[in-house]
Amino acid sequence: MNEAETKRVREIEHKTLLLKSLSSQNAGTYKCNISFLGYRASELVNISVKAPLKPDIQMLNEQNNFHANEGKGFSLTYNVLSYPASDIKWWRSKDGKVYDLITQCLASKKCENHGGKDHITKTSFEIKDLKFPNDNLLYKCNTSNDYGSDSKTFQLNVYVKPEINMEKTYRFKEGLIINCSLKRSNPPEVNYTWYSCNTPNCVGKSLSETSILRLDSQPKSVMKYQCKAKNAVGSASKIIEVFKSSKSTLSKL
């Protein structure tokens, strides 16, 4: 300890030094001198004072939007800077208006085990085996202590390739419109291509590059057509059959 910076706190006849109403001014190194019947000894003690700090959530690779493919996992590392320690709550929402509580981590306890596939601690957030649309949600982390609060929200997009939902057969009529409808797709932006299956692999010039195929004529009694749908994750295809009704069939209708 530098003698020029030494300041006597007080002389006491007790072995305990009591500092009331601690502030940052009390931080520093303290020296205790002992003298008794010609015996002298001293000891240095460093005292640091933690000032109250409202919560500050820090997320690794923080983004407003995250994405992961269906069937994969998602994990996020975070840290809450605060003093005293903060209560932490995790929420999820479909629309950003109504939030459901996933779990809470009280300052003096571990995170509650809610029995779901989410694994949440005071420093990590993890979901295993992502499903669309169940896990395709908004997630929010709220923290609070006696001196304030903080909140972080992000969207988790669970990506899945298109799944086509069409009938297998259609009856031809002039101006027939067939829609290559989807059961699900995320991201929803999809490129469509229709082909005539006159060749084994349904290759050749495309008939349409939208989800709609319009047929004004059909050279054969039975024709096959293929719809291909592709998004950023992958692609799917389905072959459908269009048949002409014979005169005998029509007379029976």
From TrEMBL:
Keywords on record: Disulfide bond, Glycoprotein, Immunoglobulin domain, Membrane, Receptor
Membrane as UniProt keyword: yes
InterPro entries: Cell_adhesion_signaling, Ig-like_dom, Ig-like_dom_sf, Ig-like_fold
Membrane topology, as annotated: Single-pass type I membrane protein
GO CC aspect terms: cell-cell junction; plasma membrane
MF (Gene Ontology): cell adhesion molecule binding
Lineage: superkingdom: Eukaryota
Single GO BP term: cell-cell adhesion
Compartment annotation: Membrane
The protein's name: Fibroblast growth factor receptor 3-like isoform X1
UniProt source species: Paramuricea clavata (Red gorgonian)
